[in-house]
Hints:
Layout: H1 11-26, H2 32-46, E1 52-59, E2 62-70, E3 76-78, H3 82-90, E4 94-96, E5 114-122, E6 125-134, H4 142-157
Antiparallel strand pairs: 1-2, 1-6, 2-3, 4-5, 5-6
Helix pairs in contact: 1-2, 1-4
Amino acid sequence: MFHAVAYNGTREENYELVIQQLRALIEGESNFIANLANASALLNHFFEQINWVGFYLTENDELVLGPFQGLPACVRIPFGKGVCGTAAKNKKTIIVPDVHLFPGHIACDAASQSEIVVPMIKDGNVIGVLDIDSPIKNRFDETDQKYLEKFVDVIIAIL
């Protein structure tokens, strides 16, 4: 059973705690979709100042909407298009301080102002991305990138 906690430590300590919570949530569960659903719910509980968090999963050369928390979203995103597709194509995390300045940004939620997308890579292949949007500009930084990449690594390890 999951117990909600207050994240009262430093940002780094709080991230370590949420990663421990993720490990506990997915331990012993082999269903990938169920684990992604819990992971998105966990991050939605963890973060302040976000309006969307979830996963897109690779299908051929595009990303297809997976488990998420937030308003209904774009269902399919081609590799190379928007922030998610660009992160998937380049196999690199992208932090966008102002989505309106990102060429080709796909606006699924008009309230989104900034975004971070972390590709999920298994055996050199992108199997999906973690996407988090915020209604404020400059919401995400290198600390978020570091720990969200660790978060994704925990998910990838169960595959």
